[in-house]
Design brief:
Elements (H helix, E strand, L loop, with lengths): L1 H12 L3 H13 L3 H16 L2 H25 L5 H21 L5 H29 L5 H32 L7 H23 L19 H20 L2 H10 L2 H9 L2 H14 L5 H22 L2 H37 L3 H29 L2 H16 L2 H16 L1
């Protein structure tokens, strides 16, 4: 076992240094993402008991992301990419601090906090995507995303369990005067420290900014338009997976402790499967991984719809834990292969495609969240929680033939 671990470490160290530093930064920030994705929504739900407010928060987050992608594109002409990257990570801590300082959770306060968090994600993902693209190639991207999703999955096991336990114990044992808000403030402080540490790591190398300054284009190759369609489908499911699970668990299961425990049940096995897939699979296997993830998500959504109980939620969340990393480990290399091909053919900055891709994601996120808010407001909250996930899951199945077509054309044209 020891020799196997050492062998894998040596393989990791054989990768380019710039790629290892980007991975190292993302590994540290991976401890922050579960808190943002899970517990901020739970905090709003606990404070307001209004699932629509959670959805509005996420809509503001998603509105802030493409706006910041645009600002980031102009700033890259003057500021080092590592500084913009670290600023995005630090801004996520600032957003949480702003949320904790609100005396009353109101729609205005939640909207501002959401937009700030969206801005942090914009700076983080815009620069993270470019650095991942710039420091990898098609032969090592399965490994890159295998390692990244392996670590992200582990943190989504460990962090929810630990933070959930801490929040529950603070209430049960009377820590911070028995006020759970005080415990949330401690968690926010830890988030800020982790973002500082990640920022230090990313500054250990002089990364290259995009060489071409222009990044605003309105006409693209037909292959890219297909990629935007795939991005919209991905964005639609993203809108639900950062909103619905927290609301479902708080509504049908219990509290944050249950939420953290459920997230951890099948995650360890998933993490090692992901590492194995990243280490052993080739580009031609991506479509099979992609299809497997979509099918698992549909099974979870159907189970939740049929049972609509605590057990149904548990099955859905377990399926979500499997689906998300399987989807990402296949999706991102497909996206980057298309960007590599088209940026050379059209002689454009790779950041132009990263920026434009975000609007495809936003369109899907907006549609998904508006669908949820509309069903919750005009029909009922239970109807939205029970049936909208199935609607989204069925629409997502269209991603499989679309992704297959994109892969077929991108590799044929490259040859």
């Amino acid at each position: 076992m020891k020799n196997k671990i050492l062998s894998e470490f040596r393989f990791f160290m054989s990768m380019p240094r710039d790629m290892r530093l980007v991975l190292g930064t993302n590994m540290i920030y991976a401890f922050v993402l579960p808190i943002i994705d899970i517990f901020v929504g739970a905090y709003i739900m606990r404070s307001s008991n209004n699932p629509s407010m959670v959805a509005v928060y996420q809509l503001c987050v998603y509105t802030g992301i493409p706006f910041t992608f645009l600002i980031n594109g102009f700033l890259l002409n003057k500021i080092k990419i590592s500084r913009l990257y670290s600023f995005g990570m630090l801004l996520s801590g600032v957003s949480m601090i702003f949320m904790m300082t609100l005396s009353n959770i109101s729609m205005v306060g939640v909207s501002i906090s959401g937009f700030i968090m969206g801005a942090s994600f914009g700076f983080f993902w815009a620069n993270r995507d470019f650095l991942a693209l710039d420091t990898t190639n098609d032969t090592n991207r399965n490994y890159y995303y295998g390692v990244e999703t392996f670590f992200y999955t582990l943190t989504f096991i460990i962090v929810p369990a630990v933070v959930g336990w801490f929040l529950i114990q603070s209430g049960n044992l009377g820590w911070f005067g028995g006020n759970v808000v005080g415990a949330y403030k401690i968690v926010t402080g830890i988030v800020l420290l982790l973002t500082i540490l990640a920022s230090i790591v990313i500054h250990q190398h002089r990364f290259n900014n995009p060489k071409q300054k222009k990044f605003l284009y309105f006409h693209f190759d037909p292959l890219w338009r297909k990629m935007l369609g795939l991005a919209s489908l991905k964005g639609m499911v993203q809108g639900y997976l950062v909103t619905a699970p927290a609301i479902l668990i708080m509504t049908l299961v219990g509290n944050e402790g249950d939420l953290g425990t459920i997230q951890s049940v099948s995650g360890i096995l998933t993490a090692f499967i992901l590492y194995f897939l990243g280490r052993t699979t080739k580009p031609k296997h991506r479509i099979y991984i992609f299809a497997a993830g979509m099918t698992i998500f549909l099974v979870g959504a159907l189970t939740n719809q049929i049972l609509f109980s605590a057990f149904g939620v548990i099955v859905f969340v377990l399926c979500k834990v499997l689906f998300m990393p399987l989807h990402d480990i296949a999706y991102f290399p497909i996206q980057m292969q298309v960007i590599d091909l088209l940026s050379e053919r059209e002689n454009r900055s790779k950041y132009a495609y990263i920026f434009n891709h975000e609007f495809g994601l936003y369109l899907g996120r907006f549609f998904g969240l508006v669908l949820f808010i509309g069903l919750a407001f005009y029909v009922s909250r239970d109807f939205a929680l029970r049936y909208s996930l199935v609607i989204v899951a069925l629409i997502q199945m269209l991603s499989i033939p679309l992704a297959k077509n994109i892969m077929k054309h991108s590799y044929l044209e490259e040859k």
